[in-house]
Amino acid sequence: MSFFKDVAIAGVAESELGNVPHMNSVDLMAQASVRALQEAGLKKEDVDGLFSSSAHYSMPTVTLAEYMGITPKYMDATSIGGASFVSHVAHAAQAIVSGMCEVALIAYGSTQRTDGGGLANITESNPFEDPFGYNDPITAYSLAAQRHMFEFGTTRDQLSEVAVATRKWASMNEKAFKRDLITHDDVKNSTLISTPLTKLDCCLVSDGGAALVLTTRERAEKLNTKPTYIWGYGESTTHRSISNMPSLVHTAAIESGKSAYQMAGVGPEDIQVAELYDAFSINVILFLEDLGFCKKGEGGRFISNGNIAPGGKLPVNTNGGGLSYCHPGMYGLFTIIEAVRQLRGESGERQVDNCNLALAHGNGGVLSSEVTMVLSNETKS
Which InterPro entries does this UniProt record tie to the protein (predicted)? Predict the structure, then answer.
């Protein structure tokens, strides 16, 4: 915990989102980066640590450094899928405290929508899955959904509740790609993609970028924005391919969440808003269980009756999530951005009252890598 006490998040921003055919992926990374730096009151010349991951560039930090004219002292392009950027925050904090850098920029950009939905450098194949018509990643998540329904009696309406709730949040977010309200019937009757998941159970395919600036606590407290502090952090993994997942209904979020809570000295009952990686509707149910918000198997019942929607028991994915706000290939950094805005009280109509403690959770691969972070607008004693 000691090194987290000495750092703070000083700036967050998105690029243009949705359908952005006039920009490429590094354009989007750079646009978000400039906006995040401006929000903090910093310049690109202040950046001496650069962090990124990408499905478009083999050396994303090098590409971004060249594009922006940054000469960093420290770089990290760790790639664990969509969870990468939550882990980058911890890596950046370690680098700052150890003196490797002082101002760390974490950035991401993708033109997945403009590119037709593909991820450019994903060429892995699995001879034990591919012959059976495996469609990465939707097949994997549909298997998890089917197994959860089989083991625990989770219903089609409960899966739909996730999409309905996130759309309610998105309706209050002017940046969200989809804002029209939807019903359970809309979700169930949308195009079947992979049983039991329909189109509206699946994340958006969008263009977009995001950036976050992390620096020393002392410097952050002199900048433009109210600092956000990291209280707890944890990461874990159990598999790479879905055929090697030990249990389709237990994810490594059990371990990452346990580590984050222990470091923060809090429990799930203390969290006031949860920003979860909702690539598919089943993710939210699994992560709510594995992060301790309810018992295993009770996720479907926990979210019923609007409990994660505006006005519900636990606000979840208050920006609209990957299902309605944006999902440009990898979503992890956006979970932290929304958590920061909620903690600053900057979320407008969707602002959660008296929000002082938030959880951001990243997921990578096919429920493979799980990274959890507990954030606060207060320093930890």
Answer: Thiolase (IPR002155), Thiolase-like (IPR016039), Thiolase_C_2 (IPR055140)
What mean pLDDT do residues 322-342 have? 97
Distance CA(296)–CA(303), nearest Å, equals: 13
From 378, 334, 360, select the one nearest 13 (Cα to Cα).
334
pLDDT number for residue 32: 98
Q: Which tokens is 244 given?
A: 């090697």
> CATH second-level architecture of 4-117+206-220?
3-Layer(aba) Sandwich (3.40)
Residue 118 has pLDDT above 70, yes or no: no
Asked if 171 and 319 count as a contact pair (C-beta separation under 8 A), the reply is no
Write out pLDDT tens, residues 263-318.
999 999 999 999 999 999 999 999 999 999 999 999 999 999 999 999 999 999 99
Long-range contacts of 68-72 (CB under 8 A, 24+ apart): 68/30, 68/33, 68/34, 68/44, 69/44, 70/44, 70/105, 72/47, 72/48, 72/101
CB burial readout 254-266, b (16+ within 10 A) else e: bbbbbbbbebbeb
Question: Parallel, antiparallel, or unpaired for β 192-194 and 74-76?
Answer: unpaired
Neighbours of 312 (CB within 10 A): 14
Predicted structure pTM score: 0.96
